[in-house]
Structures are given as structure tokens and as C-alpha cells.
């Protein structure tokens, strides 16, 4: 099996090869063709930007449709933006307080890690993560563009970028027009992106609760040894009639002459080694001994026509969509440079603080404090739990 580091090394080599090919093609084509098409591709080692002016046309079309709705959304987004900013600071502060003063209460709910593909995110989760990123970027940046057009701000282009394995997106308003816009207009344009993400995240959560039972009904086998009788994608529901789920993997059973494994579709009976009969082993150890090397939780679907594998993939898609959407919405409203929360804070200070120097001090102080909170939470997470992937 290819390790994470080998996969990242292959990707890095691929980036360099793509960059060299890009340089050759660009020298032959020249700049005229890109300018005529209204699109541009810029590629550096480990960094890609794809930009297009044509994407702005659908934004103009949508901005002209249902103008009252978009204006109402923009106003609501400002109120929600301040709420998300306060929520983000509160969560990070109380989380850090738990690490510092109540370490005995620290658990999985206190984990704060960056989503870095192939580093903190397991490679098998890439399809779900890329789909989630695509939906988040389209809705986030799309609503930025619509709000900008509703405020009368020209949008020069829109596009996507990728830094090694971290994707992103952007809508590029006219910089001078944005700077000269009223503070209220800048707040509305900046805040609507996170508003879109919250709506997407809540819809994903509603679908999860509506389409799936809240109780686990087993573990799905994601990886098995080549000689294992248990197959990949088998849903393991019990071992010797003891239910199998995340909470019971540490439960011990006494080994008898045989071990009976029930799945949703099959039943396996294994003869045991006489040397271990009468001894106790955890369910997790039993499954590993039978060749099951990686499992994940399985929630049964309320949709009768979904087979177990499709149900699992649908659940994981919704799970990652809500995780990324809500996570981006909250984090994006922190008053940190390069994030929308900083634009919102700058605009509101410009409106209510007359001295520009005082406003700049507040913005810089808020940014440094929030950066410190984020770094401290990530550091304590790894100091407590060690390196891990999700």
C-alpha cells in the first residue's frame, strides 16, 4: 500500500512536470490567445490559478433575478457574520481554557486541526472532501459575486486556485471600487460568503438526520488483509452476538472454540487457536486478528432502495459537506488578515471609529489575538492526542 508521504512525493513531482510542460506550451502559444478567450491559467511549482472573466456573466444574470431576496440575504448575512465572529472567538477561547485548566475534561470535542489533504485528512476521504470543497467554494464565492453586483461593484473575474493539495476559490471585484464603496456595502459583500456556507451546512445536517437513523448499526470494513474471509465493504454487526460499533470495540469477549461474525448479508464462523481459548480479547483485537485492518461507523439509511455501500457513501458525503461548510463559515469570520471577518471588522470600525490609527490598532490586535488562539488550540490538540488523521 502506498504511504501518505510517497503519495505526496508523487504529487510534488507531478506538479513540477506540469509546470515545465506549462512553460513550454505558454512559450509556443503566447499571451494573445488567453487574452482573447477571457481566461487565464497561471502555474507555478505547487501553485495554480485559473481565472475567467466569463464566469462573471452568470453572476450578473443571477443578481438581476430576485433582487429583493439578495438584498435581504446580504442584510441578514451582516448580523449572522457578527454572530459567527463572536461564536468562533468563544469556541476557541473556551476550548483553550479546557486544555489549560480542565485537562481531565478534554476529549474528541476539543480537537482543532487544519484540513490538509494527505496530512491531516486520510487519502480515502479525498472524494468526499473535494466534493465538499467544490460546493463550498461555488456557493461562497458565488454569493460574494452576486452581492458585489447588487452593490454596484464591478466584478473583474472569478476563478479557482490550488496550493499543492489545498484548493480554494475567489471572486475578484474591482479593487478601487471596493475600497471606495461605503462601509455598509463592504460589510454586506464580505459577510454573505459565510452566510452561504451556513445554509449549505444546515441543509446537509437536515439531510443527514432525515435520511439516516441516529443509531449505529455496525462497522463497515474498509480495508482487510488479502487472506481475510471478511470482504471489503462488509457491514459487521456482531461478534459472538455482541453488537459491534465504535463504543463496543474495547469490549472484551472470552474466546471459545469458534468465533461467529455476523454481517448484514453473511455469517462467518472461524475456528480458534486452542492456545487462546478461554482468554479475553477486545472486539477490536478479534477483528484485527481476523484480517480486518480498518473500519468505519455505519448508520442505516431510511431510504429503502439504497444498498449499504451507497448509503455509507451518501452519509460520508453529507458528513464532510456539513463539516467543511460550517467549519469554513465560522473560521472565515475570524478577524484575521485574508479572511472575510477582517474585512467586516475594518468596515464597521471605519464607520464608528473616526481615528484611522486607532482603528488600525484594533484590527491588528484582534488579528494577532485570534491567530494566537488558533495556533494554541492546534498545538494543544497535537500535544494531547499526538499526530492523527481523520
TrEMBL record:
<feature type="domain" description="Peptidase M50">
    <location>
        <begin position="129"/>
        <end position="369"/>
    </location>
</feature>
<dbReference type="GO" id="GO:0012505">
    <property type="term" value="C:endomembrane system"/>
</dbReference>
<dbReference type="GO" id="GO:0005737">
    <property type="term" value="C:cytoplasm"/>
</dbReference>
<feature type="transmembrane region" description="Helical">
    <location>
        <begin position="6"/>
        <end position="22"/>
    </location>
</feature>
<feature type="transmembrane region" description="Helical">
    <location>
        <begin position="128"/>
        <end position="147"/>
    </location>
</feature>
<feature type="transmembrane region" description="Helical">
    <location>
        <begin position="361"/>
        <end position="385"/>
    </location>
</feature>
<feature type="transmembrane region" description="Helical">
    <location>
        <begin position="72"/>
        <end position="92"/>
    </location>
</feature>
<keyword id="KW-1133">Transmembrane helix</keyword>
<feature type="transmembrane region" description="Helical">
    <location>
        <begin position="319"/>
        <end position="340"/>
    </location>
</feature>
<dbReference type="InterPro" id="IPR001193">
    <property type="entry name" value="MBTPS2"/>
</dbReference>
<feature type="transmembrane region" description="Helical">
    <location>
        <begin position="189"/>
        <end position="212"/>
    </location>
</feature>
<dbReference type="InterPro" id="IPR008915">
    <property type="entry name" value="Peptidase_M50"/>
</dbReference>
<keyword id="KW-0812">Transmembrane</keyword>
<protein>
    <recommendedName>
        <fullName>Peptidase M50 domain-containing protein</fullName>
    </recommendedName>
</protein>
<dbReference type="GO" id="GO:0016020">
    <property type="term" value="C:membrane"/>
</dbReference>
<dbReference type="GO" id="GO:0031293">
    <property type="term" value="P:membrane protein intracellular domain proteolysis"/>
</dbReference>
<keyword id="KW-0472">Membrane</keyword>
<dbReference type="GO" id="GO:0004222">
    <property type="term" value="F:metalloendopeptidase activity"/>
</dbReference>
<dbReference type="Pfam" id="PF02163">
    <property type="entry name" value="Peptidase_M50"/>
</dbReference>
Amino acid at each position: 500500500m502506498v504511504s501518505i508521504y510517497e503519495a505526496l512525493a508523487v504529487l510534488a513531482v507531478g506538479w513540477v512536470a506540469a509546470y515545465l510542460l506549462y512553460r513550454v506550451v505558454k512559450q509556443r502559444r503566447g499571451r494573445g490567445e488567453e487574452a482573447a478567450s477571457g481566461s487565464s491559467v497561471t502555474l507555478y511549482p505547487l501553485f495554480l490559478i485559473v481565472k475567467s472573466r466569463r464566469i462573471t456573466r452568470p453572476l450578473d444574470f443571477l443578481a438581476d433575478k430576485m433582487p429583493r431576496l439578495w438584498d435581504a440575504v446580504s442584510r441578514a448575512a451582516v448580523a449572522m457574520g457578527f454572530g459567527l465572529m463572536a461564536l468562533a472567538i468563544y469556541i476557541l477561547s473556551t476550548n483553550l481554557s479546557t486544555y489549560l485548566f480542565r485537562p481531565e475534561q478534554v476529549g474528541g470535542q476539543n480537537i482543532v486541526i487544519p484540513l490538509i489533504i494527505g496530512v491531516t485528512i486520510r487519502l480515502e476521504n479525498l472524494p468526499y472532501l473535494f466534493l465538499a470543497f467544490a460546493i463550498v467554494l461555488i456557493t461562497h464565492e458565488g454569493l460574494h459575486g452576486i452581492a458585489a453586483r447588487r452593490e454596484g461593484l464591478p466584478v473583474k473575474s472569478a476563478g479557482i486556485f490550488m496550493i499543492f493539495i489545498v484548493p480554494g476559490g475567489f471572486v475578484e471585484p474591482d479593487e478601487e471600487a471596493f475600497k471606495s464603496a461605503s462601509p455598509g456595502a463592504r460589510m454586506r459583500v464580505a459577510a454573505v460568503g459565510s452566510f452561504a456556507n451556513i445554509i449549505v451546512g444546515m441543509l446537509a445536517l437536515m439531510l443527514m438526520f432525515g435520511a439516516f437513523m441516529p443509531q449505529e448499526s455496525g462497522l463497515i470494513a474498509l480495508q482487510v488483509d488479502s487472506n481475510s474471509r471478511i470482504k471489503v465493504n462488509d457491514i459487521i454487526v456482531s461478534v459472538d452476538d455482541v453488537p459491534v460499533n465504535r463504543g463496543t470495540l474495547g469490549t472484551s469477549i472470552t474466546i471459545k472454540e469458534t468465533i461467529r461474525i455476523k454481517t448484514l448479508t453473511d455469517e462467518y464462523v472461524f475456528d480458534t487457536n486452542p492456545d487462546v481459548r478461554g482468554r479475553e480479547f477486545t472486539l477490536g483485537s478479534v477483528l484485527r486478528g481476523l484480517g480486518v485492518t480498518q473500519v468505519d461507523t455505519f448508520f442505516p439509511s431510511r431510504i429503502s432502495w439504497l444498498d449499504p455501500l451507497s448509503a455509507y457513501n451518501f452519509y460520508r458525503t453529507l458528513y464532510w459537506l456539513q463539516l467543511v461548510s460550517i467549519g469554513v463559515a465560522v473560521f472565515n469570520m475570524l478577524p484575521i488578515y485574508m479572511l472575510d471577518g477582517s474585512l467586516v471588522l475594518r468596515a464597521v470600525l471605519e464607520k464608528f471609529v473616526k481615528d484611522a490609527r486607532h482603528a488600525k490598532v484594533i484590527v491588528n490586535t484582534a488579528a494577532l489575538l485570534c491567530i494566537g488562539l488558533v495556533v494554541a488550540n492546534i498545538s494543544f490538540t497535537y500535544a494531547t492526542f499526538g499526530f492523527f488523521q481523520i
